[in-house]
Design brief:
It is a single chain. With 248 residues, the chain is α/β, with parallel strands linked by helices. It has 2 domains: 164 residues, P-loop containing nucleotide triphosphate hydrolases (Rossmann fold, 3-Layer(aba) Sandwich); 71 residues, no CATH class. The protein has 9 helices and 11 strands. The strands form 2 sheets. The protein has a 6-stranded mixed beta sheet, sandwiched between helices. A hairpin with a 2-residue loop joins β1 and β2. The longest helix has 17 residues. It is globular. The two termini are 31 Å apart. It binds adenosine-5'-triphosphate and magnesium ion. Magnesium ion (MG) binds next to α1. Adenosine-5'-triphosphate (ATP) binds next to β2 and α1.
Length: 248
């Protein structure tokens, strides 16, 4: 197995603010690691650095031992890192089915939809499998704009999965979801975690404690501690700065 992603002294400054400060993070292949921390801790910035959406001020990012620090976002995506957080990944006027299929198709750079009927069939099969996984088969012909917030968040995950990533970043996938929708998303995350390495940013501690193999705590841009859910739950410093003494 081994490490799939590692950051070395990763730093991002915005003017005088160190949003991410000398973070040495690592994740083993097959793990589901959560990143927690108060608002503004640098979690989303950390994700944007990994995907290449923004470039670090200093430090390195290694993906399967390859230095990806200076690579453009599209190259990083082709290497197998996908992220689900921006609702804008969804094409609102396309159907649910088309949204997933377009993402699956984007993976095949030399693919020509019209001349290769077999590949077309394969894409349709992959798309159907993803729709079943995210529980949106019955809405496959629905225009994406008409989906509920919860269904849209799961479609967002489906679009990320369609690119067949090796590493999936999920930024607050249950934000704004009702308890039943949250439960549905937890079950989905557990299912996809069986065959994929995942980094999850999540505020709901119950979700984090239930699904994570490991947890990293960020605090004002710095990595405070990395450990198993039990270690994090029982860590005095974490309780003081983040959990606020709340037992979870
Ligand atoms: N483009 C930017 N320009 C300037 N400052 C920024 C920028 N992006 C983020 N920041 C600042 O960097 C810090 C970290 O922000 P970030 O969005 O990474 O936090 P977060 O941990 O994701 O918070 P939340 O839990 O609220 O989503 C914050 O103080 C934020 O205001
Ligand atoms: Mg954030």
């Amino acid at each position: 197995m081994g490490e799939i992603l590692k950051t070395v002294k990763l730093t991002k400054n915005f003017g005088g603010l160190s949003a991410v400060q000398e973070v040495n993070f690592s994740i083993e292949e097959g793990d589901l690691q959560s990143i927690i921390g108060p608002n503004g801790a640098g979690k989303s910035t950390f994700f944007k650095l990994i995907t290449g959406e923004i470039k670090p001020s200093s430090g390195q990012i290694l993906f399967s031992d390859q230095d990806i620090t200076a690579l453009p976002q599209t190259k990083i995506s082709h290497l197998g890192i996908a992220v689900a957080y921006q609702i804008t990944n969804i094409f609102p006027m396309l159907s649910v089915f088309e949204n997933v299929r377009v993402a699956a198709q984007s993976r095949k750079t030399t693919f020509n939809l019209w001349s290769r009927a077999l590949a077309h069939k394969e894409l349709t099969g992959e798309t159907e499998a993803i729709l079943e996984l995210i529980g949106l088969q019955e809405f496959q012909n629905e225009t994406a704009a008409n989906l509920s917030h919860g269904d849209r968040k799961r479609l967002e995950i489906g679009i990320a999965l369609a690119t067949k990533p090796k590493l999936l970043l999920l930024d607050e996938p249950t934000a704004g979801l009702s308890p039943p929708e949250t439960r549905q998303t937890i079950e989905l995350i557990k299912k996809i975690a069986a065959g994929l390495t995942i980094i999850l940013v999540e505020h709901k501690m119950k979700v984090v404690m239930e699904v994570s193999t490991k947890i990293t705590v960020l605090y004002y841009g710095s990595l405070l501690v990395q450990g198993t859910p039990d270690e994090i739950r029982n860590n005095e410093e974490v309780r003081r700065v983040y959990l606020g003494g709340v037992v979870c």
